[in-house]
Design a protein that fits this description.
The protein has a single domain, classed as Alpha/Beta hydrolase fold, catalytic domain (Rossmann fold). The protein is 19% helix and 22% strand. The protein has 5 helices and 11 strands; from the N terminus they run αβββββββββαβαααβ. It holds the Pfam family COesterase.
């Protein structure tokens, strides 16, 4: 369940319209283990960065469909942005400089609004999964414009929605093809990455307070 320590406090003071989160960290249990995120400076959004939704697509997994991630050892630190996927210069993004490019990039960020909620309100929030553009050539989820904490605050319609922003493989790493890959059904790995994101959301978003039956893009 989302924010287990905060929920324990809420049960003792359920009448309070808001919760004091300044002394707590948002803690969530996922199917790979426990993760910790962080609150925004005004404590209205809980952010979880760089959550692996698949194993690193390296070595024998290069160009192949995404595989399940390894289980976490201890509490996973989800307070910092992860790598972006390998790609060429993208002038429309970050002045043509992609930071932290790596093949180990199948991660996603989750942003949960917390303003004015009590324990019962943390359940069944709708979920928006943002798949970045870039003509399958470039794009990454650690750009400031994809920071869901800012988006939630700026868009009133999203104040009661969870935002998920994944990376997926682009360019040759995501959309290479060959007779061998086609024969094995492994072409278009980037689209298979996106499919894996929605499977992760289905299996885990309930623990963030989201409704897996209310997911849109």
């Amino acid at each position: 369940m989302l924010f287990s320590a905060v929920l324990a406090l809420a049960s003792a003071a359920a009448a309070a319209p808001t919760l004091d989160r300044r002394t707590f960290l948002p803690i969530v249990n996922t199917d790979a283990g426990i993760i910790k995120g962080k609150f925004s400076s005004d404590y209205t959004v809980a952010s979880f960065y760089n959550i692996p939704y698949a194993a690193p697509p390296v070595g024998n997994l290069r160009f192949r469909p995404p595989q399940p991630p390894a289980a976490f050892s201890g509490v996973y630190d989800a307070t910092k942005m992860g790598n972006s996927c390998m790609q060429g210069p993208a002038p429309q993004f970050n002045g043509g400089v992609n930071q932290n490019n790596s093949e180990d990039c199948l991660n996603l960020n989750v942003f949960v609004p917390t303003e004015g909620v009590v324990a019962g309100d943390l359940l069944n929030l709708p979920v928006v999964v943002y798949i970045y553009g870039g003509s399958f050539n470039d794009g990454y989820n650690n750009m400031p414009i994809y920071d869901g904490a800012n988006v939630i605050k700026a868009q009133p319609l999203l104040e009661r929605s969870i935002i998920v922003v994944p990376n997926y493989r682009t360019n040759i790493f995501g959309f290479a093809t060959s007779n061998e890959l086609q024969d094995e059904g492994d072409a278009n790995a980037g689209l298979l990455d996106q499919k894996a994101v929605f499977e992760w959301v289905r299996n885990n978003i309930g623990n963030f307070g989201g409704d897996p039956n209310k997911v849109t893009t």
